[in-house]
Amino acid sequence: MTVVETQATAAAAVPVRKAPRKPKAAPGSRKLSPLRLLGLIVVWLFTAFNILLLYWLIAGSFKVPAEIFREPFQLPVILFQRGTPFANYIYAWNNAGFGDAFLVTVLLVAAATVTIVAVSAPAAYALSRLGVRGSGAMTNFVAIGMGVPFQTVIIPLFVSMAKIHLTDNLFGLYLVYVALSLPFTVFLLTGFFRSLPDELEEAAAIDGASPVRTFRSVMLPLARGGLITAMIINAIGLWNETLLALVFLQTNAHFTLARALFSFYNAAVYQSQYGGLIAGVAIIVLPMLVLYLVLARRIITGLTLGAGK
Amino acid sequence: MASVSFKGTTRFYAGVDRPAVDGLDLEVEDGEFLVLVGPSGCGKSTTLRMLAGLEGVDEGAVWIGDRDVTNLPPKNRDIAMVFQNYALYPHMTVADNIGFHLKISKVPKAERAKRIQEAAELLDLTEYLDRKPAKLSGGQRQRVAMGRAIVRQPQVFLMDEPLSNLDAKLRVQTRTQIASLQRRLGITTIYVTHDQTEAMTMGDRVAVLKDGILQQCDTPVGLFGKPANLFVAGFIGSPAMNLIPSAVTAEGVSLGGRTIGLTPAQREALTGSDVVIGVRPEGWETTSPENGIPVMVEVVEELGSDQYLYCTAQDESVEQVAHVEESAEEREAPHTITVRTPGMAPWQRGEKLGLIPKPGSVHLFDAASGERLPD
After folding, report:
1. β partners of residue B313
2. What is the mean pLDDT of residues A197-207?
3. Any idea where the ABC transporter domain is (chain B) (predicted)?
């Protein structure tokens, strides 16, 4: 008998051990306490409500008004029977001026988001890591900016922007977006930079890197997760932003999606085109949902793994 | 390559009145391997960081070779440092990690690749050059950190407890590797550790620090054979030296009924009427209880090659003293006398025996000042 055969018979003789499908939890941790039960119920209710809303939105965008009101939660039928399932979307796209608005919004949000992060990241790095005198106070000052509701400063903001002829102007709105988003983003990123290990900076200093080089070659790549988070949060916020767009933009050609939807709402309701209205909402909501689903995976955990130990 | 000198170097931390490092005077020769050792908070890491330029110097100066580097930023000091947790750049490959300094100092690409390759070969890292640190084991990361230091061919290596994250077996292995690598490269090295075994085995010389003050700097043999004060006596050597207080009489000092004579020089140096007698565990001879200091075995530690007996004194005058400042728990535990006997000896718990210090193995310290009395 060869060695291989011996091994084979030995393997056959030993009964195959099967691992449990799910390893047993630590004792006590799985107990269903009242608080845990309550928490579970709240979480599931919340999730169910949101999923229902999303379903209602998407289903509604394929329905005719009669269906929307009579059978709000059934699957759409009539438009599919007619063979024109996308009629609402076509209506919304053609009547709301979404074509131009889409382009405007994508460019505006992209430019503003990139600028916000590009300005905030070095600011946050300087505030949290360079040990500048008074950086604590300055960070708090930036944080105060988060506490000021932007609605309260709209009028002075409009007046001053009007003085420099930047109302009804996309560049003006871009400036306003960037300015109003900075406090939150800087604050978010200071927390993120603070959590990075000190030794990496010291190692870079000994390796001969200047502070700028350290920021660019070492800290920034490590902070990628934080930067992407900041970008997503800002992009979603600005994409949905309506009030400032409403105040600052007057010409149709400058309208952002949210602003265009606002105009479209009046027209659609007047024409009882509720299906088209819901389709219009879906056109605005879905890109952000997709963006989130795609990028959420890229909020990389474990990028700092392996730095130590 | 260069020498390193600390000249009255002092460092205060914000909000603490006692300096973290107090007037340190230390000369490190060119090519020497110096180990800084001491308990936590003794200022050894601060000393290293001052030399690296990561920490300011409040008083005094730091010199590397013939340059005063006290106010130079780290990058102008021509030093390389291995951090306790390695501080590898997690987003760079092993090759990029090792070559980061060369890249910054604009070494041409071909030359850079060659030097990275050399360092990798020296440290057995060639097959990992394309990996990121997260995909390496602890020992490999430690070697990458070493590689990052040696690729620079700096004037001084600084190492801040580089082995403390490795498991016991690997630590012993790496200890020898680092020491032999240093001897081969001949680069002045300052090595910080809290582990006295590491200090004794690796260093050409060992500097013992306590509370920011240099206690003694000597070769391992000198440190072990002639500790300068009670702290060094208790800190160096494992298990620690037995320290037994005794009063000075006209004849000398008595230890368990025996008298040890004092030389005139020793009497001269005394500042009080008490001394502390130090005997290392291997400095005892065992005999019957009537003939030596009577003790009873409390614990037997069998190591195979050696055996350690932890004994309590039967005579109250032979009470062990604390050699280092102790925590509350340590103070409460009874202080035993440690005896080293050959391995596999038949000693049992509860057995009684007598101890006699071997000739030449008695260290005498002034109890009041803690200083060693002249031999």
Report:
1. B295
2. 89
3. 4-236
**Cβ–Cβ under 8 Å, residues B154 and B186:** no
Q: Which residues of A touch B79 (CB under 8 A)?
A: 206
Tell how far CA B348 is from the center of its chain: 33
Extended strands (E) in A126-231: none
CA distance B267 to B264: 5
Q: Which of A109-118, A164-173, A215-224, B160-169 has the highest mean pLDDT?
A: A109-118
Q: Check CB contact under 8 Å for B53 and A205.
A: yes
Domains of chain B: 4-231 (3.40.50.300), 232-366 (2.40.50.140)
- Does A172 share its domain with A274? yes
pLDDT in tens, B279-303: 999 999 988 888 888 889 999 999 9
Query: Considering CB atoms only, which of A207, A221, A305 is closest to B104?
Result: A207
Does A306 score more than 50 pLDDT? no
The percent of residues above 90 in pLDDT, for chain B, comes to 57
Least confident of A134-148, B74-88, B268-282, B328-342: B328-342
Given A85, A106, A121, the domain boundary residue is A85
Instruction: Say if A156 falls within a structural domain.
Output: yes
Strand partners of residue B65: none
> How far apart are the CA of A217 and the nearest CA of chain B, in angstroms?
9
Q: How many Å is the Cα radius of gyration of chain B?
A: 24
> Which of A205, A217, A222 lies at the smallest CB-CB distance from B75?
A205
B355: how many CB neighbours lie within 10 A of its CB? 25
ipTM: 0.82
- CA-nearest residue to B100 within chain A is A207
**Whole-number CA gyration radius for chain A:** 27
Does A308 contact chain B (CB < 8 Å)? yes
Domain that residue A183 falls in: 96-296
pLDDT confidence bin for A12, thresholds 50/70/90: low
Number of domains comprising chain A: 2
Between A206, A218, A306, which is nearest B79 by CB? Answer: A206
Inter-chain CB pairs, A–B, below 8 Å: 85
The partner residue sitting opposite A199, judged by closest CB among B74, B83, B165, is B83
